[in-house]
TrEMBL record:
One of its GO terms (biological process) is fatty acid elongation, polyunsaturated fatty acid. GO terms for molecular function: fatty acid elongase activity. Belongs to the ELO family. It catalyses: an acyl-CoA + malonyl-CoA + H(+) = a 3-oxoacyl-CoA + CO2 + CoA. The keyword Transferase applies. InterPro entries: ELO_CS, ELO_fam. It is found in: Membrane. GO terms for cellular component: endoplasmic reticulum membrane. PROSITE patterns: ELO. It comes from Cylindrotheca closterium. The keyword Membrane applies. This is Elongation of fatty acids protein. Its EC number is 2.3.1.-. It is an enzyme of class 2 (transferase).
Length: 291
C-alpha cells in the first residue's frame, strides 16, 4: 500500500494486490497507451467468470450442435458466397491480434528481463501481468475465444471440409483459456503472446485469400510452421511448469491446469505435424508414385 502511494507507476486492483503498470516504466511508449488501459482493473470480470463456470461448457455444446445442424442443412443446398463478409471478419481478427500482440509481448519481454524464469512461471499474474494495460489485453484474449468460433460458420456455409483439428482446436482452446484465467495460471502470458502473434499473421493471410490477393511469394507453409513452433514452445513451457511445481512448494502453478495445457499442446503438436505432412508432402509423394 505504501509503495502504491509513493510510486505513480504502482496501482492497487480490486483484490487489494499492487501491480506495476508496464507503460509507466517506458516513457517512449506511454503516450501510445490510453488512460483506460493503464488503470484497467480486471478483477470484476474475473470474479464474474469464476462465478459462471458453465458458460464455456454451454458455448462448446451449442457450438457442436450448430456444426452438426449446419452441415445437415447445407447438405442439399448450394454453398453460400459470403467471401466479402469472411474477408472483413478475418481482417478484424488480424487487426485485433496485432494490437493484442503489441500490448502483451513487450510486457512479457520486460518480465523475462527483470524477473527470473521461476517468477515468470510461478508468481500470481495479477501482480506480474494480469492488471493494467497488459491485463486488459490478456482478458480480451480469453474472451475472444468465443467470437472466434464464428470461423467455423464460414466453413460450413461455404461447404468446405471441416477437419477434426479445426473444431477440436476451437473447443479445447476456449475451455482451457477460461479455466486458465479463472485459476490465475502464472504462465498464461506466454500462451497469450504466442497465440496473438500467430493469429495476427494467420488471419491476415486468410483475409488476403478471401480477397484473392495472396502474394505469390508467400508460402502457406509459413503459417503452419508458426503454428507448430507455438505448440513446441507450449510443450516446453508446461514441462518447465511441472519442474517448478514439483521442486518449489511456493510456486502458484496448479497441477490440473498445467496437465491440461500439456495434453492440449501435445495433441496440437501431433495434429499440426500430421496436417503439415499431409498437406505439403504427401500429395507430391503420391504424384511421383503414380508417374
Amino acid at each position: 500500500m505504501d509503495n502504491a502511494e509513493t510510486d505513480p507507476c504502482v496501482s492497487i486492483n480490486s483484490d487489494g494486490i499492487a501491480y506495476r503498470e508496464f507503460s509507466c516504466d517506458y516513457p517512449q511508449l506511454e503516450p501510445f497507451y490510453l488512460n483506460f488501459e493503464k488503470k484497467y482493473d480486471p478483477i470484476p470480470v474475473l470474479r464474474w467468470m469464476s462465478e459462471h463456470p458453465m458458460i464455456p461448457v454451454a458455448a462448446v455444446v451449442i457450438y457442436g450442435f450448430l456444426i452438426v445442424w449446419g452441415q445437415h442443412v447445407m447438405k442439399k443446398r448450394p454453398a453460400w458466397n459470403w467471401r466479402n463478409a469472411m474477408a472483413v471478419w478475418n481482417l478484424s481478427l488480424s487487426i485485433f491480434s496485432w494490437i493484442g500482440m503489441f500490448r502483451t509481448a513487450p510486457q512479457l519481454a520486460s518480465n523475462l528481463y527483470h524477473l527470473p524464469l521461476r517468477d515468470n512461471l510461478c508468481e500470481d499474474p495479477r501482480e506480474t501481468y494480469g492488471s493494467g494495460s497488459s491485463g486488459l489485453w490478456v482478458q480480451l484474449f480469453i474472451l475472444s475465444k468465443f467470437p472466434e468460433l464464428v470461423d467455423t460458420f464460414f466453413i460450413v456455409i461455404h461447404k468446405k471440409p471441416l477437419i477434426f483439428l479445426h473444431w477440436y482446436h476451437h473447443i479445447t482452446v476456449l475451455l482451457y483459456c477460461w479455466h486458465s484465467y479463472v485459476t490465475k495460471s502464472p504462465p498464461g502470458i506466454f500462451f497469450v503472446v504466442m497465440n496473438y502473434s500467430v493469429h495476427a499473421t494467420m488471419y491476415g493471410y486468410y483475409f488476403l485469400m478471401a480477397m484473392k490477393l495472396r502474394p505469390k511469394w508467400f508460402n502457406p507453409m509459413i503459417i503452419t510452421t508458426f503454428q507448430i513452433s507455438q505448440m513446441v514452445v507450449g510443450v516446453v513451457v508446461t514441462m518447465l511448469g511441472f519442474y517448478y511445481y514439483t521442486t518449489d512448494p511456493t510456486c502458484k502453478i496448479e497441477r490440473e491446469n498445467n496437465t491440461a495445457a500439456f495434453v492440449m499442446y501435445g495433441s496440437y503438436l501431433f495434429l499440426f505435424l500430421q496436417f503439415f505432412v499431409g498437406r505439403y508432402f504427401k500429395p507430391k509423394a503420391q504424384k511421383q508414385k503414380s508417374v
